[in-house]
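Handout for the seminar on molecular recognition.
Each group receives one record of this type.
Step one: identify the two inputs.
Step two: read the structure output and locate the region that could contact adenosine-5'-triphosphate.
Step three: write two sentences on what you found, then compare them with the reference statements printed after the record.
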Amino acid sequence: KERTLAIIKPDGVQGYYTDEIKEAILEWGFEIVQESKFQLDSERASLFYAEHSGKSFFQSLISYMTSGPALAMVLEKPNAISEWRALIGPTDASKAKISHPRSIRAMCGMDLERNCVHGSDSPQSATREILFFFGDVMLT
Ligand code: ATP
C-alpha cells in the first residue's frame, strides 16, 4: 500500500464539500489514516508551495490558501498517489467540468486556481508533504 497527502482547500471547506469529498474517498477504497484541520499562514503556505515561488500566480495562490481553514488527510491504498490524482481530476476545474465531470474538482472547483483539493504528484512530494503536516510518524 501507498500513502498520499490530500488537502481540501479553503474553498472546499467553506463550500461545505468536506463530507461529500470524504464519501468519494471512502467509496474509491482509500483509508483516511489521519486528518487535521488547520489554518495556514502566508509563511507556511509559501513553504508548502515553494516550487511555485517564482510564478506569476504565486501571491494569489498564497492568499487563496490562507483564506480560511483547510483539511489535510493522509490517504492509503495501493497506488494511492496516482489513484487520488485520477479521482480529483485536472488542475483546471473549469476544464474538469467538461472533460472529467465525475471528478472531485468538477464537483467543487471553480477554475485553474480555485480547484478545491490538492494531491501529491510523486512519491517524493508525498513524503515531503506528509512530513510537512503530520511528521514522520505518518510516513509508513
Ligand atoms: P496541487 O499541487 O494543488 O494538487 P496541481 O499539481 O494540479 O495542484 P500545480 O501546478 O502544482 O497543480 O499548482 C499548484 C496550485 O496552484 C494549483 O492546484 C492551483 O490552485 C494553483 N495554480 C496552478 N497553476 C495556476 C495558474 N496558472 N494560475 C493560477 N493558479 C494556479
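Reference statements: The radius of gyration is 14 Å. The chain has one domain: 2-135.
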